[in-house]
Amino acid sequence: ELCNGIVTTKSNLVNTAKKEGLITVQRLFLLDSAALKTGEQLLKNNQPDAVEILPGIAAPYFIEHIYKKLLCPVIAGGLISDKDEIEKLFQKGVLAVSTSIKELW
């Protein structure tokens, strides 16, 4: 197998990948309350295996307002700079984090 899944901002690719049996992660940029509402609708319609919230510091807000309705595992990505932040995100219900900072891997 060449690939097991995709991470994408494009909801149409989530649907296509699901039909192919791939693991799907829908990326959402939570810039404001309108993006939150749009993101909620995308997740309801597409039902990805997980959602990645960007920036990661917005993930607790997403969990508090949306997660309980959808029960989609949450990954936090972006603007995460130290281990304390990661631990706080885990305590607030984030399943995983994505970061380019090698010291945090």
UniProtKB/TrEMBL annotation:
<dbReference type="GO" id="GO:0006355">
    <property type="term" value="P:regulation of DNA-templated transcription"/>
</dbReference>
<dbReference type="InterPro" id="IPR006699">
    <property type="entry name" value="GlpP"/>
</dbReference>
<protein>
    <recommendedName>
        <fullName>Glycerol-3-phosphate responsive antiterminator GlpP</fullName>
    </recommendedName>
</protein>
<dbReference type="InterPro" id="IPR013785">
    <property type="entry name" value="Aldolase_TIM"/>
</dbReference>
<dbReference type="GO" id="GO:0006071">
    <property type="term" value="P:glycerol metabolic process"/>
</dbReference>
<dbReference type="Pfam" id="PF04309">
    <property type="entry name" value="G3P_antiterm"/>
</dbReference>
